[in-house]
């Protein structure tokens, strides 16, 4: 099991997982059985969640973009039966990204509903040092949650994009073309040219590439919510502390001043 794996095997498994390799692919590459890989994932993933919760405090973020990313556990929502566990079906991961440092200050996985939205925004507000400008899409649940958690200490605007309608055909999986955008200030005095969701949408792509269970149009998905949450926590701990971001040439944690060096995978394993 995971607690008797050699350190080199643990690092090999974790390195594969954060690069988007599937559980079975990791098994073939490392020679570690699936049960041990999943046990290691849950143990380290839970440790990463605790690490992020403790370190992501008093953050100097000033410009945040927020979005939510769809996935599912066990089966898609339309196939869920009344007798299935409550964890089955569609799940959404709320993510906030600092446009300057590329730091992900917090995330939350749950249903796309008012309680989850309010919990995520409340958690985000508790982690920030300064007044912040926030951009989201047009999801209406954000406005009430941001107004409650930030009160008057926020500049918030939405950006809604209109897409060109393309008929189904050979190119239907290509990104649709944006034909227009509408920016609407909601609270405070947001700077219009900084209202954007481009960075967080790019983070969505990073998640789909680096977390195998988020890859679309494949049979890769989570069978258990616990595994799903652990994989997400491992991803964001690696993203914030280990992975060098090409545009800022350091890790987001270094850019935000909460780490002084680039962490190795071994240091992440020890910290988790």
**Largest sheet at a glance?**
6 strands, mixed
User: Could you list the spans in which at least 5 consecutive residues all have pLDDT below 50?
Assistant: none
> How does the overall form come out from the CA principal axes?
globular
| Physical arrangement of strands within the biggest beta sheet | 3-2-1-4-5-6
Binned strand content: 15-25%
Number of E strands: 6
Q: Which structural category fits the helices and strands?
A: alpha/beta
Helix content class:
25-40%
Mean pLDDT: 92
The string of secondary-structure elements, in order, is HHHEEEHEHEEHHHH
Radius of gyration, rounded? Answer: 19 Å
Give your account of this protein's structure.
By secondary structure, the chain is of the alpha/beta class. 38% of the residues lie in helices and 18% in strands. The chain has 9 helices and 6 strands, in the order αααβββαβαββαααα. It has helices at 7-17, 23-30, 34-55, 114-125, 141-150, 198-210, 225-241, 252-255, 265-271, and strands spanning 63-73, 89-98, 107-110, 132-136, 154-163, 178-187. Strands 3-2-1-4-5-6 form a 6-stranded mixed beta sheet. Strand 2 (89-98) and strand 3 (107-110) form a beta hairpin. Helix 1 packs antiparallel against helix 2 and helix 3 (34-55) crosses helix 7. The two termini are 18 Å apart.
Task: For this entry, give a set of tags.
272 residues, alpha/beta, six-stranded mixed beta sheet, 38% helix, globular
Provide the fold topology.
Blueprint lengths: L6 H11 L5 H8 L3 H22 L7 E11 L15 E10 L8 E4 L3 H12 L6 E5 L4 H10 L3 E10 L14 E10 L10 H13 L14 H17 L10 H4 L9 H7 L1
Parallel strand pairs: 1-4, 4-5
Antiparallel strand pairs: 1-2, 2-3, 5-6
